């Protein structure tokens, strides 16, 4: 079982119970002492993913003599994770980001040619960070994201809001929202299935996971 994820100086510990987490923290404390390192407890927090047996009171976790605070939502490497394992907050974050970028493009490049606008849209509005990881969300959250993505193209090309989304993307040779989801999911799946990384191998070996179920819904071809 994977019990830690590290990227540069960002570390995540994963444990099935409070006692197991305390053991992991003890290992970290010993490593820090042996290598003359220091953890910043003020920037460290813990989250308990909700289930039927999730405790309602905070359970003390100590790091270097300081009690860690419990969080219901954190951002790790730019992706929002909450205790309900819902992607709605991260989808809303990306929806707002697309809105800001689309308004900036429409304001600054309104006199540019259609091809320039198309390239700007592909560069700034299709790079929706971690979209391929959204596997637990409400229909409304994804609908709002799709509508904003469509509006971004309309705003850039000054099209009426009632025009067909599929028609305008087809005419403009740009991916619609459904196409973007399929492409990104297929690309991520290809990376996972070609990797020897133990974390990605764990994802690959769990075909019943919500992530795989979501990719199937996007009509990704599974070999």
The count of strands amounts to: 8
Distance between the termini: 26 Å
Strand order of the biggest β-sheet: 1-2
Mean pLDDT: 88
Rg to the nearest angstrom?
21 Å
Strand count, sense and barrel status of the largest sheet are: 2 strands, antiparallel
Low-confidence stretches: none
Helix content: 40-55%
Kindly name the structural category: mainly alpha
- What's the order of the H and E elements? EEHEEEEEEHHHHHHH
Could you say which overall geometry the principal axes of the C-alpha atoms support?
elongated
Q: DSSP helix count?
A: 8
Sheet-strand content, in percent, reads 5-15%
Protein name: (diamondback moth) hypothetical protein
InterPro entries: DNA/RNA_pol_sf, RT_dom
Domain Reverse transcriptase: 1-81
Organism: Plutella xylostella
Mind explaining what this structure looks like?
With 223 residues, this protein is mainly alpha-helical. It has eight helices and eight strands. Helix 2 (88-108) packs antiparallel against helix 3 (114-124) and helix 2 (88-108) runs parallel beside helix 4 (139-157). The chain has helices spanning 18-34, 88-108, 114-124, 139-157, 165-172, 177-194, 198-204, 210-217; strands spanning 4-7, 10-13, 45-46, 62-63, 66-67, 69-70, 73-76, 79-82. It is 49% helix and 11% strand. Strands 1-2 form a two-stranded antiparallel sheet. The longest helix has 21 residues, at 88-108. It is elongated and about 60 Å long. Strand 4 (62-63) and strand 5 form a beta hairpin. Residues 1-81 form the Reverse transcriptase domain. Pfam families: RVT_1.
